[in-house]
Amino acid sequence: MSSRRARSRQSTSSSRITDEQINDLVSKLQAVLPEARLHGCLSMQVSAAKVLQETCNYIRSLHREVDDLSERLSELLATTEASSAQAAIIRSLLK
Amino acid sequence: MTISNGDGDSAAKDGRRERKRKRRAEPSLVKWKTEGEQKTYSSKLIEALRRVRRSSATGAASAATDHSRSRAVREAADRALAAAARGRTRWSRAILCGRTLKRRVLPRAGRPKPVGPARAAERSKPPALKTKARVLGRLVPGCRKLPLPSLLEEVSDYIAALEMQVRAMSVIAEALSAVGGAPSPAQTEGPI
Fold first, then answer.
1. What radius of gyration, in Å, describes the C-alpha atoms of chain B?
2. Cβ distance of B70 and A81 shorter than 8 Å
3. Are B152 and A50 in contact (CB under 8 A)?
4. Do B128 and A49 make contact, defined as CB atoms within 8 angstroms?
5. Closest CA to A30 of A15, A50, A12
6. How is A43-57 classified by DSSP, letter by letter?
7. What is the interface pTM, i.e. ipTM, of the complex?
8. pLDDT band per the 50, 70, 90 thresholds, residue B192
């Protein structure tokens, strides 16, 4: 498709990205991390490698949380009865 | 007269180009924080959970181990999350295509890299960043061979989506565990 070709052409031109662009994107990513929210906007000179490392750790911890929650949910699903589960779910949705 | 027409044409073209650029703009992260999005995801997830529960109940109850059930729940949650992304991001499309297709080489990845000045410019990224970016690309589904700017965009969207997933799942878990403690009033209500 022409759109795919256009996108691939864009990737060859963007392979020459500047360090400035990288730092810009990394700072944007840093704003999403929870640690950045704790430190406030003071830490401007955090290295890109550290931000990437923090991002990896944060994603891994989120994965772990999701795994724990799905374990808990599977246990709850097995033990609760269908009717009470339906009522609870509808109640939680309406909140 | 022709000059003004030319200006009008170029202005129109610029407008069209700008509109095209806006359409290809990155997906906004704000939508993952809205309550409406979370409620939509919760209802999708509940449907999937009901299906998981039904399939594990009809089969031999002893055969469905806790691990396989939680694995099924996790996959259902991820698939619902990817569906909520409406296919605008790479990680969501990768999840929906099925995790078994991870090893398939995309035709775009097999393109030969240009020699010369381009390679020298690519070396401007220090190798430490390169390895970390590769690790990050492995964590996010479908983003292994992505260049750094697109990878970072996918990552920020993926993180926002995961946060919403955690919030929605904890709400549902709280609701179910609260019911487990008080079964009698729920039973008198009857199935709705």
1. 24
2. no
3. no
4. yes
5. A50
6. -----HHHHHHHHHH
7. 0.73
8. low
Structure token pair of residue A13: 């031109």
Distance of CA B101 to the CA centre of its chain: 16
What distance in Å separates the CA atoms of residue A73 and residue B76, rounded to the nearest whole number? Answer: 12
Low-confidence ranges of chain A (pLDDT < 50): 6-14
What phi and psi, each to the nearest 5 degrees, are found at residue A45?
A: -100, 30
Closest partner residue to B173 (CB to CB) among A17, A76, A79 is A76
Q: Is the pLDDT of residue B82 over 60?
A: yes
CA distances from B74 to A63, B123, B157, B181 (A): 10, 39, 19, 25
Instruction: For CA atoms B87, A11, B145, B135, give the dihedral sign.
Output: negative
Where does B85-147 have alpha helices with state H? 90-96, 117-122, 127-139
Query: Among positive and negative, which fits the CA dihedral B11, B13, B15, B21?
Result: negative
Q: Give me the residues of A, 9-38, that contact B with CB < 8 A.
A: 11-12, 14-19, 21-22, 25-26, 28-29, 32-33
Binned at pLDDT 50, 70 and 90, residue B182 comes out as: very low
Nearest CA in chain A to B24: A7
Place of tokens 């009698």: B184
Closest Cα to residue A60, out of B75, B149, B155? B155
Is the model's pLDDT at B48 over the cut of 60? yes
| Residue that is written with structure tokens 């990288």 in the block | A22
| Of A36, A49, A62, A91, nearest in space to B171 by CA | A91
User: Phi/psi at B164 (nearest 5 deg)?
Assistant: -65, -40
Residues B114-142 have a mean pLDDT of 72
> Tokens standing for A10?
């864009």
